[in-house]
User: Which sequence fits this backbone?
């Protein structure tokens, strides 16, 4: 994977951005380049036309005065027209590029088969800055062409100064310090921005917490409004304190460099005003010299912004592109068409990035093909982590997972995940019409009976039948005509989505019924077990993986796996584990006793 502590080189990043722009909007790119860069020439030549007009006026030559005035008018008109055209074309290019850049970023995220980049702080900080720069990236082409235009203006202006007196080129030398200071300034502010990224992310998170409906009830019940404001202000202050300090120091150095350049320009005008053609030379020196200062200031400002915002965003985009390519290429062996032996976990250890303690340690386990496997254990035991590893969202820290004898690390991750289906504990509430909220479980499936079948398996048929427009009902109260669902109803929609893929090799059901009562969960798990033994499941050798806290509902599983304190402590059938009288039997007894005591009439 690309190192997180360094970004790709600027030339390669700029080349990638230009390729994206040319591929998406070739005509607009060429037009914007032409009008923006070529528009710099008449603007820079205004100083020459003005000096020629002054010289002709001093000599009293009417023909030269008319020619110089016409040239000056033509240059002013060309500058205005090209500037107007450049503004409109660049605006259109920016609008188109905004869509292209954001779509490309979404595709890159979607191409990454793992979720590590969503849970490592240093990756999250980098991605947060990239998202913040996404809109600015669409202006990269405009700023690049603008910078090239400034360079052309500077070259013409330097040539004009050299034509008066060669020693006036010393002004160019004195113009170098502001450029160097600006380059240093960009690096300093970039480091300050990187250092404050986590504080900015925390402030934005607090802002969303205080302004979105999901947390509104708890925020008001807990009277957290003022506390959230205080924490957000503290985070923003921490973010901007370092940036303000860096900007102040760099601004002082930049002002000093410009002061030296301004003094030199005044001295240059004084010297040429005493020689031959004093009036024309003084006007050209003053006009070109002031333009030099103006162009240099624009160049310093634009190059600084280009480096800190646009080019830095391009480098982050290139880093994400490298990361996505490396992640997608981590394995090229296709998954089997059907499982014959099953999945084997061999001496597996896993530690989350940056964590000191292993979540799973030395786990060895066989999941037979065609089996219904239940994973049980207390909160934090590592059940969901094992599920993530089997889905290949993470790679093991040590040990390995094999599929019919093939190391899962060698299997193409996207191809493996196409053979995985299910519902996860932290399921997503897709606020789409019902047919889409369920149908996204398998976009390639066009069987007209797929949706009703998936809804029936999830026990959601009655739910959908009771909605105003059935399958066409918009979910989510925030949308026009949208219907909000209870958490349990949302979970049934998620369950149906997990049943859309008909022949997965691995069906994962991670706490799929946490919002359902015990009876509803029992009925649901019975349907899972029945589905796991259907002909299509047998044909693929599908392994059905159930994760639950309720021991009573997973008795029908072919294999029960008990995880405690990051280790596999027991596995077997319900009857075998009860006879063993170990941890499973103890926890089962505790839950059974608690359920008996909770019945009406039970003794407190």
Assistant:
């Amino acid at each position: 994977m690309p190192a997180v502590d360094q970004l790709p080189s600027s030339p390669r990043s700029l080349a990638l951005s230009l390729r994206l722009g040319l591929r998406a909007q070739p005509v607009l790119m060429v037009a914007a380049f032409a009008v923006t860069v070529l528009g710099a020439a008449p603007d820079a030549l205004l100083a020459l036309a003005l000096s020629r007009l002054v010289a002709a006026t001093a000599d009293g030559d009417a023909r030269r005065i008319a020619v110089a005035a016409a040239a000056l008018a033509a240059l002013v008109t060309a500058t205005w027209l090209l500037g107007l055209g450049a503004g409109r074309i660049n605006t259109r290019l920016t609008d188109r590029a905004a869509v292209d850049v954001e779509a490309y970023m979404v595709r890159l995220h979607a191409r990454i088969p793992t979720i590590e980049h969503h849970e490592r702080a240093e990756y999250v900080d980098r991605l947060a800055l990239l998202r913040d720069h996404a809109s600015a990236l669409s202006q990269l082409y405009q700023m690049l062409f603008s910078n090239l235009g400034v360079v052309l203006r500077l070259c013409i202006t330097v040539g004009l100064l050299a034509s008066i007196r060669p020693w006036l080129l010393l002004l160019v030398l004195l113009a170098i310090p502001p450029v160097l200071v600006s380059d240093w300034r960009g690096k300093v502010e970039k480091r300050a921005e990187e250092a404050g990224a986590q504080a900015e992310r925390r402030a934005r998170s607090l802002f969303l917490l205080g302004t979105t409906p999901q947390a509104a009830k708890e925020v008001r019940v807990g009277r957290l409004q003022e506390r959230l404001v205080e924490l957000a202000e503290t985070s923003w202050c921490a973010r901007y304190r370092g940036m303000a300090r860096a900007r102040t120091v760099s601004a002082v150095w930049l002002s000093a460099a410009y002061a030296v350049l301004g003094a030199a320009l005044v001295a240059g005008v004084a010297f040429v005003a005493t020689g031959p053609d004093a009036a024309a030379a003084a006007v050209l020196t003053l006009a070109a010299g002031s333009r030099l200062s103006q162009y240099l200031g624009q160049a310093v400002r634009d190059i600084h912004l280009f480096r800190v915002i646009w080019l830095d965003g391009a480098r982050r985009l290139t880093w994400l592109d490298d990361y996505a390519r490396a992640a997608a290429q981590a394995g090229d062996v296709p998954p089997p068409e059907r499982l014959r032996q099953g999945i084997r976990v061999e001496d597996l250890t896993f530690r989350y990035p940056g964590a000191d303690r292993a979540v799973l340690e030395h786990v060895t386990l066989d999941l037979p093909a065609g089996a219904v496997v239940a994973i049980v254990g207390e909160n934090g035991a590592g059940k969901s982590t094992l599920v993530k590893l089997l889905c290949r969202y993470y790679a093991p820290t040590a040990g390995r997972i094999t599929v019919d004898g093939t190391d899962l690390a060698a299997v193409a991750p996207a191809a493996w995940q196409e053979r995985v289906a299910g519902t996860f504990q932290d399921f997503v509430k897709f606020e789409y019409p019902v047919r889409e909220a369920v149908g996204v479980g398998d976009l390639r499936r066009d069987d007209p009976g797929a949706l009703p079948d998936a809804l029936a398996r999830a026990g959601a048929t009655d739910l959908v039948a009771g909605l105003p427009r059935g399958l066409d009902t918009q979910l989510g109260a925030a949308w026009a005509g949208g219907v909000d669902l209870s958490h349990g109803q949302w979970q049934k929609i998620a369950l149906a989505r997990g049943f859309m893929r008909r022949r997965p090799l691995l069906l994962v059901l991670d706490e799929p019924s946490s919002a359902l009562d015990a009876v509803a969960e029992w009925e649901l798990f019975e349907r899972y077990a029945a589905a796991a033994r259907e002909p299509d499941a047998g044909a693929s050798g599908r392994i059905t993986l159930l994760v639950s806290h309720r021991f009573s509902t997973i008795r029908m599983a072919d294999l029960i796996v008990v995880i405690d304190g990051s280790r596999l402590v027991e596995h077997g059938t319900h009857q075998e584990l009860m006879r063993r009288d170990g941890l499973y039997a103890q926890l089962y007894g505790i839950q059974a006793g608690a359920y008996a005591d909770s019945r009406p009439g039970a003794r407190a």
The chain is about 60% helix and 10% strand.
